[in-house]
Amino acid sequence: MNIPGENLIIKMWDSLVDKGIGSVLQPWQERRVGESRLELKRQEILKIAEAERLAEDIRNGNIQFESPQLENFLENRQGRIEPTLGVEYAVRNSFGKSISENIRKEANVAKSILIAEDLLADDATPVNESKLEDDWLFNWQEYAGRVSSEDLQQLWGKILAGEIKSPGSYSYRTLDFLKTLSKADAEVIATAAQFVVGGVIFREHDEILEKAGINFGILMYLQELGILSGVEAVGLQTKWKSSQQAHFIKALISYNHCLVLEHENPQKVASKPVYLVTTIGKEVLSLAQFGANKEYLKAAGALFAKQGFKVQVADWLQQTKDSGIFYNAEEIVA
To answer: pLDDT, tens digit, for every residue of 120-167?
Structure first.
């Protein structure tokens, strides 16, 4: 197959096919790479668009579907005295709407699957052999089927890709939270995500946050949603100890960047006033499209430097679930 994420994509389709998820799309065994893969994807996008048009025609009454069960039901009602409600029309209309809705859901799911496939194609992460839970997949299918917005389809595609890479990344609670997420809420969460460093949002940088549209009212709203906690707790601080014993070193990660704190004393402790990110918040915020806010990182780094640390802002490459490397480091002075 010769693409970085070959084995991840194989795992995705193996997880989906036997459960009948994504049946609108070609089975994995028939998929190809290179130009033929791109051509297949083009055909599938056309097929999804055709399915959506079909669903619309059924919903508008331009196409009528018949079934033996439906006709038998209507025949058995002949001769009965009914109110002037139009039972036959109501039954046929309900039947058509049901078919239309199922087609629409299949099309929405297919779009999110194609998004997940694209995300995995360029990902060289080793395959985690743990299997995805059947119930998790069926919940994902149900929720992904509800959304027609491209932004939310991107979200559900990213969730599937993340769960394929690391089963258990997104809990049932997170899925339940995301199923009710509006586009407006998603945009607010995505904007706030760029300020998350090491699982917290630093206080003391209101001007930078407000410039991005994250004021105190928004922070309180994120707390109401369950993304943040301790917003009104002015004295709340987080402390960080060294990751090594020989000397102090700690990397505070923010997506594709990090702050690296160093000191010759391994017992030294770094601290900062923060807003806490909840467990569900960490899962949700990991889906954001924003990278780190470098201006914010440098401002925070300068305050850590005042605590006596050597501070660097650097690029970050996550290599495993629990480790990574930093590079292109730039020192920050107080």
So the answer is: 988 888 899 999 999 999 999 999 999 988 888 999 999 999 999 999
- Letter string b/e over residues 87-107, b meaning 16 or more CB atoms within 10 A of that residue's CB: eeeeebeebbeebbeebbbbb
Residues listed for the chain? 334
Give, rounded to a whole angstrom, the gap between the first and last alpha carbons of the chain. 51
CA distance 305 to 264: 14
Matching residue, tokens 């979200």 = 155
- Is the predicted pLDDT of residue 97 greater than 70, yes or no? no
